[in-house]
Amino acid sequence: MDRARLLVGVAGSAALVAALASPVHASPGTAAAPARPAAPAPSTDPAARIQKDLRMKLGSRFGGAWVPENAKGKVVVATTDASAAGTIRAAGAQPKVVRHSERALGSVQSTLNAHARSAAKTVNAWYVDNETNTVVVQARSVAAAKRFVAASGVDAGAVRIVKTTAKPRPLYDIVGGERYWTTQYGCSVAFSVTNGFITAGHCGDTGETTSGSNQVSQGTFGGSSFPGNDYAWVNTNSQWTPTPKVNRWNGTYESVQGATEAPVGTPVCRSGGTTNSRLWCATIAQRNATVQYQEGTVTGLIRTAICADPGDSGGALITQSGGQAQGITSGGSGSCNNGQGSGDETYFQPVGEVLQILAQQGREIVTEGGNPPGGACDQYQTKVSASLTSGGNQYQPNGNYTTTASGAHRACLDGPAGVDFDLYLQKQNGGAWTTVAQSTSPDPDESINYNGTPGTYRYRVHAYSGSGEYTLGFDRP
């Protein structure tokens, strides 16, 4: 087997420069994974129905429609023709006579659009405002707005200039698998986390700045570990929005549902900014693999037979079903240039360790649907919070509790993403403790519902793997 290599984008390679010369742009707005189409708005909505009917009836006399604040659904319809007031009232709306029709104001806006290049940078936006029957021009400089309106040749009487201190800027999504840039390399996003994303440690050192695939300033490496490990996290600025998405490179997105560790043999897929023709999939061949790069040794990696190329570094490894984040692309051998083949081998840093570190900062992986408001265990009578290191045990609450009644013992354990915490309910029997109920899934979260007799009980919280803070909520009879 060829010596494993890092998959970072090295600017000194002519072939790689060519491959990365056309960056994959981050999705503007809030592009989402394909989902069930939203149900159409009910056709019986009174305001929408009235607006549509009267726009058709009044034609060029229609001046717009709106629902005033605190009007309880009462719609106002404007018209340039006072004689149309009866028609408006008969339709169930309140009439208002105005100077400019909807079509006339739309024409003013279209003309401003055509002259947009003449607008100074201090002119923010322009739009039709039905309630004031004008086209509003927002600007940080009133003088600049007046020059823009005059240069466009529109009727100044139809325009209202509003001074503002706002400075609009474009907003961009953070999506797993997509390209970002450092001062030296082109790498890939793994998964979004609160206020940023995780990626490979060899892509950048702490403090190094990043820009998105569109070359817009993005953030700064908040922490980085390589060699030994190969993870890092980037703290992004307010122009970038973390999303629970991984790019499939076919116009759709994989939704991240969690970060539960999958066993060997699980089908997984990789997404990266260089090999952006599709997802590349295989199975987890091994866990806890050690790789020796020229730069040093990295331990605890996931090994797969998935191909990858330079610039895919830092990208996402996710389960083929279930949307569980698994790893961060580190390095390997082989190439996707000729399709995936028998010589391909790629290693991934498991996401658990970096997510545990971020959990101590109050941050977590961004998942579809997010977390329940206020915490997953808030509905229980008693809550305790503490932290565990991998392999450790704690007994809650403060050792044990006693109940004199029979009934249900209900408990909820909420652990950080990327760990495997287990929960046991034990009852004292003489001088010994006996486990009467347990919840030992491979997830960080567990629950117990046990119908017991009077006695002394305790909960054992065990960190099977991983470290971090947890919350235990429970009810007693």
TrEMBL record:
Belongs to the peptidase S1 family. It holds the Pfam family Pro_Al_protease. Residues 100-156 form the Peptidase S1A alpha-lytic prodomain domain. This is S1 family peptidase. InterPro entries: Alpha-lytic_protease_prodomain, Pept_S1_alpha_lytic, Pept_S1A_streptogrisin, Peptidase_S1_PA, Peptidase_S1_PA_chymotrypsin, Streptogrisin_prodomain. Residues 27-46 are annotated as: Disordered. Residues 1-26 form the signal peptide. Keywords: Disulfide bond, Hydrolase, Protease, Serine protease, Signal, Zymogen.
